[in-house]
């Protein structure tokens, strides 16, 4: 298709932004909520703040929704906190948790903003981990099914778009970093048992949604990082294919087709891996028919040939925001990742590659023929207020403009994309970098240092300050993707 074109977005296209409960809500010990594993993990990342206060969305949600409406949003993707809804292993529902999310959903609906709800976004309740064994034990399947059914029963009359498990592929690929591997003695093999249990939980959620929510639609949320081959060398082509398989494709294949690919079955057999597939499991997976694919896509990678005698290297992400700190992985005999000389990088060594979004959408549409929505895409940066109290973020505007333009080109290519919800609406707690790495269209007037020193949230400003990107995005939304703020055709 055309390299340069003048894209048109569908009239009913949904524009909004995204967040996640543990990163934005705060109020971790209020309203009947009990701790999540991610709470404990976040307390070990000083000098970055933990999630005790985050963006204090719990106390500011009406103000936040009013700002969404001011910006022109027609959708908002957020997650529910499992431990706020079901605080203990007795399975009893917390009425305060239900009341909070009902109030948030009602506020969104009152402003004509479509809620898009993630059921699980990295925040395993401590009671699930300690009493049931977390993702390592099949006891979680019934507990997760119960939680999902409580959510569908209480919110399904107003929430029609549901997302099951956020970035399951990333939770397995980076299990040590995200805490999923906790307690595993042989992660090389145990990860596939955990992955299988997560697939069964996903299937339960899909089937319960279709059973309980009239007109309900549900899909997976893979973390998508398209991988280009370094050169036209045939071995680099295979290496890029291997990297795609082991970081993304095999998960989406399973979600779409309800069965494991021959590729991964052969890999298991060759490496003496038993994912513990029991009678009835395959039938359950096959019965779960997803309605769409939610796409989290920030960047691309480059794959190259790695010989069998290469030295293995784990993926070491840049955690301090100083360029040049990333260490790319090497998987001997499979692939290695490397820098791309044709794209720019941000301070955390993430590729800035707008074309990758079009590439990814084309790939997903060609392979699966399912509607898609963008649920994460954004620019993290060090930011602060200027002397005038405003926040100027031209790099984010450029990032969003170029990525949305490529999204528009993907739609012109024939891809069915129904929504764009970048990360994030407000600044929130970055998974690895606290408040130091800011993604929001709206600045939250707080810092890691202030949050670490505060005895209560009342000591913090938490003022909402729309950034320049907020106003730019508002104009784009109100023109339905026509007012770019600059000439886009080349």
TrEMBL record:
BP terms from Gene Ontology: carbohydrate catabolic process
Entry's Gene Ontology molecular function annotations: beta-glucosidase activity
Record keywords, A-Z: Glycosidase, Hydrolase
Superkingdom assignment: Bacteria
A cellular component term, taken from the record's GO annotations: cytosol
Residues in coiled coil: none
PANTHER family, A to Z: ARYL-PHOSPHO-BETA-D-GLUCOSIDASE BGLC (PTHR10353:SF136), GLYCOSYL HYDROLASE (PTHR10353)
Similarity remark: Belongs to the glycosyl hydrolase 1 family.
Name of the featured protein: Glycoside hydrolase family 1 protein
């Amino acid at each position: 298709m055309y390299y340069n074109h003048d894209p048109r977005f569908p009239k009913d296209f949904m524009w909004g932004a995204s967040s996640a409960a543990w990163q934005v809500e705060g109020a971790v010990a209020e309203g009947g909520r009990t701790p999540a594993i991610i709470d404990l993990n976040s307390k070990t990342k000083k000098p970055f703040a933990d999630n005790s206060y985050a963006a204090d969305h719990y106390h500011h949600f009406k103000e936040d929704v009013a700002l969404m409406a001011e910006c022109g949003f027609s959708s908002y993707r957020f997650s529910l906190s499992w431990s706020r809804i079901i605080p203990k292993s007795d399975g009893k529902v917390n009425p305060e948790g239900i009341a909070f999310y009902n109030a948030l959903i009602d506020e969104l609906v009152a402003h004509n903003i479509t809620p898009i709800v993630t059921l699980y976004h990295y925040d395993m309740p401590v009671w699930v981990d300690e009493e049931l064994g977390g993702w390592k034990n099949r006891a979680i399947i019934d507990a997760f099914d119960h939680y999902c059914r409580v959510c569908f029963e209480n919110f399904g009359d107003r929430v029609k778009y549901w997302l099951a498990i956020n970035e399951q592929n990333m939770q397995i690929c980076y299990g040590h970093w995200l805490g999923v591997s906790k307690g595993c003695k042989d992660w090389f093999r145990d990860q596939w048992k955990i992955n299988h249990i997560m697939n069964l939980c996903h299937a339960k959620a899909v089937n319960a949604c279709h059973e309980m929510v009239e007109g309900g639609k549900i899909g997976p949320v893979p973390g998508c990082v398209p991988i280009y081959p370094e050169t036209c060398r045939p071995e680099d082509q295979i290496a890029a294919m291997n990297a795609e398989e082991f970081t993304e494709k095999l998960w989406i294949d399973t979600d779409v087709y309800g069965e494991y690919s021959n590729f991964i079955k052969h890999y298991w057999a060759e490496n003496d891996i038993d994912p513990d597939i029991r009678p009835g499991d395959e039938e359950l997976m096959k019965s779960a028919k997803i309605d769409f694919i939610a796409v989290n896509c920030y960047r691309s990678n480059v794959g190259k040939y790695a010989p069998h005698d290469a030295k293995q290297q784990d993926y070491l992400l840049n955690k301090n925001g100083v360029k040049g700190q990333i260490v790319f992985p090497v998987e001997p005999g499979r692939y290695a990742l490397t820098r791309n000389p044709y794209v720019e990088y941000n301070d955390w060594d993430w590729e800035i590659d707008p074309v990758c979004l079009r590439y990814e959408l084309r790939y997903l549409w060609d392979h699966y023929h399912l509607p898609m929505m963008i649920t994460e895409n954004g620019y993290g940066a060090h930011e602060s207020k200027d002397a005038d109290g405003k926040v100027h973020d031209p790099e984010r505007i450029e990032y969003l403009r170029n990525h949305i333009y490529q999204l528009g080109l993907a739609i012109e290519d024939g891809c069915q994309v129904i929504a764009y919800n970048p990360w994030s609406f407000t600044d929130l707690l970055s998974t690895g970098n606290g408040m130091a790495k800011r993604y929001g269209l709206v600045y939250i007037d707080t810092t890691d240092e202030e949050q670490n020193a505060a005895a209560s949230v009342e000591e913090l400003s938490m003022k909402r300050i729309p950034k320049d990107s907020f106003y730019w995005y508002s104009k784009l939304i109100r023109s339905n993707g026509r007012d770019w703020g600059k000439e886009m055709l080349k």
